[in-house]
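hi support,

uploading two proteins for the ticket. first:
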Amino acid sequence: MSSTANGKNGTWRNWGGNVSARPAREVTPASVDELAAAVRRAAEDGLKVKAAGAGHSFTSIAATDGVLIRPQLLTGIRSIDRENMTVTVEAGTPLKRLNVALAREGLSLTNMGDIMEQTVSGATSTGTHGTGRDSGSIAAQIKDLELVTADGSVLTCSEKENPEVFAAARIGLGALGLVTAITFAVEPVFLLTAREEPMPLDRVLADFEELWAENEHFEFYWFPHTDSTNAKRNNRSAGPEKPVPQLKSWIEDELLSNGAFQVANWVGRAAPATIPAIAQISSKALSARTYTDIPYKVFTSPRRVRFVEMEYAVPRAAVVETLRELKAMVDRSGLRVSFPVEVRTAPADDITLSTASGRDSAYIAVHMFRGTPYQRYFTSAERIFTAHEGRPHWGKIHTRDAEYFSRVYPRFGEFTALRDRLDPDRRFQNDYLRRVLGA
């Protein structure tokens, strides 16, 4: 059941390559009972416990020098309830496997993010989201949750059972317990028509409220050093199904979005002065297209070019002003940014530490190619985001601490009090949680 960490000499590394850890031991439990036993044994040995899914967080939220739980054996669908339209899945199930399995059953999640490599528990615990006018993050679609708490007992929660735990644990940051199973609301599989097209930045900003209001799922990518964006609208459709032809899909999604983009980033990393010229070409490489397909084939796309990322949620009403400030900062800074800035939205939800908790939100994500210095860009961007009471994505780079979060999350104290109750000895503590939640 125990194994050594992946990588050299028992070192665990995240996907972005910016976080590493050397756990004392690594455990791959095959059942909830084995997981509970691992937590109890860690307590006997005086070790902290963390679970690491696919390592898609850019923060050290999963890092530990204690016991690292790998959930790859806790996968698959436990049950489907067609009467209540829910599906219960094991915590280590990758989103891509869930999406395919649901589609085979004629079902789908209502909304999802654009990356599907993460495990369901990793994605929900950090607040992973897509874009939506009416539908929220993946965690907002949770109906029921099962977790192993610090004393090794198994706790289930929902709106009716342990509701105060349910309010917090849907986006629990790994601080309240180890999630073992999640029940999601699902619906009969549907079709989405995607319309992707270049649009000048000024027009997107001028018409942002309208574009948001008229589309179920609106997002756009702005290419720094240009006035160009790629705007995406996804709306439900009566059909017929009209997927992107295979060759065209390969050219656009693999060759341009991954292959050529990778080469462009290699060139940009070697010769930063070329980045603005490359950005002009990149922003024009993707032509307009419209296609209709099942949700996960529209919402998600492969991400093979490795990067590091910072993303903040600002009040939706502040997004245009925030973006104008971000553009002005990039223009005057002399920075060379080769990755587009991604802008999405989410409606307010009722999850204690959700980035959309209690307020309609817009997300602004800044990226840098893996291996390039990102600190100056991210620091300058973060200064702008925090001036608008931004809330950083829990799994993406930021420098905020508990003192800041207690100001931007009205229910912050509710979460920390629950943590005191469920994990008084801080079995699930690590450096990241100490910073963001306080000791």
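and the second one:
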Amino acid sequence: MAKIKSTLDIQLDLTRPVEELTEVISAVIASQPARRKEILKGLDIVVGNALAEIQAQEEKGSENRQ
């Protein structure tokens, strides 16, 4: 039986995280043009949640120092 996978093998240079992740996101979007908006909205939610968590930790840290 044939097994068909749509995968992307990735190696990242962790010294250039933003550039590398941008390239990966661009590759995924290029492979799924009809889902571009859905993919970007999902990423926006995940990134927004991560930033909110960092902000909350920073605020908690500054409160503990006062």
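thanks. also noticed: The mean pLDDT is 93.
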